[in-house]
Amino acid sequence: MTDASNTAQLTINGKSYDLPVLSPTAGPDVLDIRKLYAQAGVFTYDPGYTSTASCDSTITFIDGDEGVLLHRGYPIGQLAEKSHYLEVCYLLLYGELPTASALEDFEDRVTRHTMVHEQMHNFFRGFRRDAHPMATMVGVVGAMSAFYADSADVNDPWQREVASIRMIAKLPTIAAMAYKYSIGQPFVYPRNDLDYASNFLNMCFSVPAENYQVDPILSRAMDRIFTLHADHEQNASTSTVRLASSSGANPFACIAAGIACLWGPAHGGANQACLEMLKEIGTVDRIPEFIARAKDKDDPFRLMGFGHRVYKNFDPRATVMKQSADEVLDLLGIEDNPILQVAKELEKQALDDPYFAEKKLFPNVDFYSGIILEAMGFPTSMFTPIFALSRTVGWISQWKEQFSDPAHKIGRPRQLYRGETQRDYVDVENR
Ligand code: SDX
Fold it and tell me: Its family (predicted)?
């Protein structure tokens, strides 16, 4: 915990209170209000947590005004270009880039946990074939403690470590199984001879009837998409995981809670919603109609893939994703992809529009990811499951960090109550 460097004064009803000011290594100073209610008998009010720090963290830093994203201090652009997903997983989990031998050992541990308990195959069969893969993932991941009870005790550091590796290793297998189940194809077992991204592609696209060769272009693009989604500070789903964990819930239940929260179209569900929106727009000449709807206060429509609670500049992930979209479509020979053309023109027209400029609405990570994923052969229903499997390491890293604070306690917000004050019960005959 950073020490209070100075204090702020708060005066309420003529009485002054000193609030310690905590100094970060980067970002704004933080007012420590932990004792405010005990001292002054008042709550603070911040329903969307727009000005509230929920924790003390060393994992990821975002500067929304400058469009900066650092993982353990390393810029996302450098990691996307020079690193790969499992190395980024190691960095997020343990705080430093690994030596070659440490990375080899980590990759080997993950590789050897990629299979799931065979009984889980039957678990899938309880779902309808047309279940959204996110529904299946929430259910299956939430039930993992029933299959891996030997790594569910959050008070045992060794079990926390095993659960971490198991989830990073098995989420791609579970996501691929959810996909295969939804299209009526047999599950494909993981292969230890393939790297993480190639293994996922093989589990999704290979069939027993013929050999499947993983395209290295797709594998590199897949790995980069995993890296770009790995962690993002205290977003809604990460905050959900932290809150669920604060009650002592088992790690699998906490990650399932994160998956459920991520599913929303305002959050991780935006990649599916964005591609569906681009397809609804269909052609460049219809873009003004949709921009007008996005600006219309009486129309609930929003440009999916645009805007962000923190970024008031370009989301640095979107910049990398846009470059990757150009590369992948070009390398796949998908010339003049109409959806990509609509996306690029929509971005241009929106960024030229004063409404979006004034409200500092820029493309976010979800704006271009769907275009790449569709070009790779994924249905839109698999976009958010891919976001979820990528973000599992971020959720787990943040979940593990909580245990490093011996003072961590159950999260229990208060409220601004504006309901009825106390009144007596009225018998039904007198109402
Ligand atoms: C992710 O938090 C994270 O880090 C999340 C994430 C991660 O990696 O974990 O980055 C992943 O969730 C990215 C965001 C994906 N969601 C979308 O693309 C959905 C579309 N975007 C929005 O719904 C919205 O921008 C949010 C939810 C992302 C952010 O909403 P805020 O911060 O609560 O902002 P707001 O809703 O208060 O909007 C501010 C203003 C409003 O207008 P006024 O009421 O002030 O007049 O901007 C407008 C909004 O109407 N606005 C939009 C808009 N987003 C905000 N208008 C049109 N289109 C949009 N997309």
Answer: Belongs to the citrate synthase family.
Residue nearest to atom 40 of ligand 1 (CA): 359
For 357-389, b/e burial (b = at least 16 CB within 10 A) is eeeebbbbbbbbbbbbbbbbebebbbbbbbbbb
**Which string of b and e fits 151-175 if b means at least 16 CB within 10 Å?**
bbbbeeeebbebbbbbbbbbbbbbb
pLDDT at 3: 52
The pTM (predicted TM-score) of the whole model is: 0.95
Cα–Cα distance measured from residue 152 to residue 267, given in angstroms and rounded to the nearest whole number:
28
Q: If you average pLDDT over residues 206-219, what whole number do you get? A: 95
Contact between 141 and 117 under an 8 Å Cβ cutoff? The reply is: no
**Residues 227 and 202 sit within 8 Å (Cβ to Cβ):** no
- Segments in 50-99 forming alpha helices (H): 76-82, 85-94
Per-residue model confidence as pLDDT tens digits over 254-291: 999 999 999 999 999 999 999 999 999 999 999 999 99
- Ligand 1 pocket residue status of 361, Cβ below 6 Å: yes
Q: Specify the residue with its C-alpha closest to ligand 1, atom 11.
A: 267
Q: Which of 77, 74, 98 is nearest to 86 (CA)?
A: 98
Closest CA to 60 of 30, 93, 29: 93
In the chain the first and final C-alpha atoms are separated, in Å, by: 56
- The residues assigned a catalytic role are 308, 366
> Between residues 357 and 188, which one has the greater pLDDT?
188
Q: Separation of 309 CA from ligand 1 center, angstroms?
A: 6
Best residue for ligand 1 mutational test, from 309, 355, 362, 369 (most atoms within 8 Å of Cβ): 309
Residue 71, beta-bridge partner list = 60, 74
Query: CB neighbours of 420 closer than 8 A, spacing ≥ 6?
Result: none
pLDDT tens for each residue of 109-134: 999 999 999 999 999 999 999 999 99
Residue 222: strand, helix, or coil: helix
Closest CA to 252 of 150, 384, 177, 402: 150
Mean pLDDT of 348-353: 94
Q: What distance in angstroms lies between residue 299's CA and the mean position of ligand 1's atoms?
A: 15
Q: Which residues contact 166 (CB under 8 A, 6 or more apart)?
A: 113, 144, 148, 151
Map tokens 């994992």 to a residue: 59
